[in-house]
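Take a look at the protein record below with the fold in mind.
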Amino acid sequence: MDVRVERTRRALQEALFALAREHPLEEVTVADIVTRAGVNRSSFYQHYSDKETLLADALDAAAEFAGADLPEMAEPLAGPPQALFDYLVHLDENAEVYRRVLGPHGSAIVMARLRGRLESIVQEGIARTSTPAFEGLPLDVVGAGIAGSALGVIEAWLARDPRPPVTTAADWLWRVLLGPGGPWQAPTGR
């Protein structure tokens, strides 16, 4: 990608991300974004059709910058991977933005992007580990179910006041993702 294009896109992403920390998304205008980014309005529309797509890109870039990309895993892990902690730290540090984006008046575009990203990660992970747990289920169905559960846990955690620490959120998320019968479950005595 052209360096100027990348620089403009990054400036727009950073501007909207900063504005989304300060104001509800519906109050942020394209004029606010381009003023903060130091570019003109036509530059905005050369790169983005709307502010929600820009916000989805901005959140992806911020998560990537935070080191929150999930690693490739060849085998199931005994506990949450470090990248999950990194991602949750990123969410925690930007909780207001994510509460606004994932909440009842949030962004359908951003939610769809997050869901799609999680579904892809899940599908790739299941395909690599060849776990028998989902045998007979279509991979897209499993990905959608697990991504939906993960987003539900994240939304519930971010909505709590006071918000529990990241370690608690990681434990909740990991336990929900592994489901009943995980390694933490106490023996039933049978």
